[in-house]
Amino acid sequence: MAGRARGSVRALLAALLAPALLSLLASPARGRGGRGHGDWDPVKLPPLPPREDAARVARFVTNLCDWGALATASSLAEVRGRPFADVLSLSDGPPGAGRGQPYLYLSPLQLTAHNLQGNPHATLTMSLAQTDFCRKHGFDPQSPLCVHIILSGTVTKVNETEMDFAKHSLFTRHPDMETWPASHNWFFAKLNITNIWVLDYFGGPKIVTPEEYYNVTFQ
Ligand SMILES: *[C@@H]1O[C@H](CO)[C@@H](O)[C@H](O)[C@H]1NC(C)=O
Ligand SMILES: *[C@@H]1O[C@H](CO)[C@@H](O)[C@H](O)[C@H]1NC(C)=O
Ligand SMILES: *[C@@H]1O[C@H](CO)[C@@H](O)[C@H](O)[C@H]1NC(C)=O
Question: What is the pTM of this model?
Answer without folding.
Answer: 0.84
